[in-house]
Nicotinamidase
Amino acid sequence: MKALLLIDIQNDFLPDGALAVAEGDQVVPVANRLMSEFALVVATQDWHPSDHRSFASQHPRRHIREVINLSGFEQVLWPDHCMQGSHGAKLAPGLNLGEIDFIIQKGTDVDIDSYSGFFDNDHRKSTGLEALLHEQGVQEVQLVGLATDYCVKFTALDAISQGFKTSVVLDGIRGVELTPGDCERAIQDMRLAGVEIIQ
Ligand SMILES: [Zn+2]
């Protein structure tokens, strides 16, 4: 059984959003097209409390995109985004929401970020995605969504390490590119880990 994972296709990551990913809206038609080919579709949703520690606004004298140490982990400071219940946290309105079977929320712990759809960044707390996929008899996952160099990459790497055959659809992902080349490096990292990159 093969599942489609839609990674963080949410308003705040679209071009008008708080943490806009360039061309982020372009993944929506790709996701819609793929959804009809999969019996199981799971969407992840970045879902932060309003005082989440990944927000630059929570750190006086720090600025957006600065990297700090947070609970022992390198943390990029982001603009406030995907706050629980906000418009920005909603899944993109262009998505065929009726075809989404399950939504997995992540980043709900105020003290730690969760780029991966499977675990918090310290790998201590699971989001429940792995259990859900096993319960549904899934052995293989295909990913599309945002952003290539963060949540797509870390979800794909965790999927591989949890034993799922994993592929990422290149025209269904877009990245942040904090540093030029980040997306290319993310794709290389995924490939090296055994993720299949497909068109
Ligand atoms: Zn976030």
In short: Helices lie at 27-35, 129-135, 148-161, 182-193. Residues 2-49+89-198 form a domain with the Rossmann fold fold (CATH 3.40.50.850). The CA atoms of residues 55 and 80 lie 5 Å apart. Residues 46, 48, 54, 81-82, 107 surround zinc ion (CB under 6 Å).
